[in-house]
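Case 308 in the screening queue. Each case pairs one protein sequence with one candidate compound; here the compound is magnesium ion. For every case the pipeline is the same: read the inputs, emit a complex structure as tokens, and attach any notable structural observations.

Predict complex for case 308.
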Amino acid sequence: MQPKELSIVCPLYNEQANIARFLARIEAVMAGLDMTYEIICVNDGSTDHTLARLLDAKGDYPRLRIINLSRNFGKEAALTAGLDYSTGGIIIPIDADLQDPPELIPELIAEWKKGFDVVLAKRVDRNADSFLKKTTANLFYRFHNRISATRIPDNCGDFRLITRQVAEAVRQLPENQRFMKGVFAWVGFRISAVEYSRESRAAGYSKFGFWKLWNFALDGITSFSTAPLRIWLYIGFIVAALSFSYGGFIVVRTLVYGVDVPGYASLLTSILFLGGVQLISIGVLGEYLGRVYMEVKGRPSYIVDREL
Ligand code: UDP
Ligand code: MG
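Case 308 output:
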């Protein structure tokens, strides 16, 4: 296969209602650019008619390549598959729900031509997102960037332009549970950004509910920081120092005022409190151990059924 100048990589999970509009808008934009390109649609185990719709579109869009995964592996894995199959000198990952406007592609390319390796698409207007999503996303970026050495640019999704060199750097990372935003930021290179306002989903429903976003945030934090593990060292020191001083206080008080029997409430409170603190710290250990366990098995992040 002849390598193309541009690969557009799109993960799809139950997006049957968006495919026709998505491809039409991409083609309209690409018609204005003088570039060879391919559209790689990764069907991430959709349970609706996504695959059928993609196959229908193949007649009209010869540049469409369909990578069918054997089941739903999640967006990060689908994107990884898309990167692995892409041939483009530059690659643009994009969502199928048209929340990432294809009309921004020429701007991304113009910025790349100035000599950047990564051009981020930054959402300046997230009014289309719910209040809950906006605030939790903000909190996540602030917390993550505070405790991790890898800074994730805030308000950027996976919609961006990367060069082949950046894509190869990402592909070389051996981890199979990839937090894409994080690994893209981790590899570095010359980065620029263009701004856009995020629209609402064209059709269908978001695949990221609250619980999934929460787990996604935990994945992100544990992938790029060990601060949650290290903090227990300090909490332990503080609790030990406080207990020690309190012990000293009790000894002195007993020497001065004699033995004091009541103390049931303080005893129970401290036992329960410390029990809780210990459970939290074991939970954090478990979180990291779980990640080590998943990685050490060395399973691939996705399995391809076939390319169509
Ligand atoms: N997606 C996927 N696999 C999944 C979940 C989502 O490939 O398990 C795709 C989905 O089809 C869409 C993109 O990832 O193209 C972003 O998903 P969504 O729009 O649901 O996320 P949101 O924009 O709400 O964060
Ligand atoms: Mg979306």
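Case 308 observations:
- The CA atoms of residues 76 and 101 lie 20 Å apart.
- Residues 11-13, 15, 44, 72, 74-75, 78, 95-97, 99, 201, 206-208 surround uridine-5'-diphosphate (ligand 1) (CB under 6 Å).
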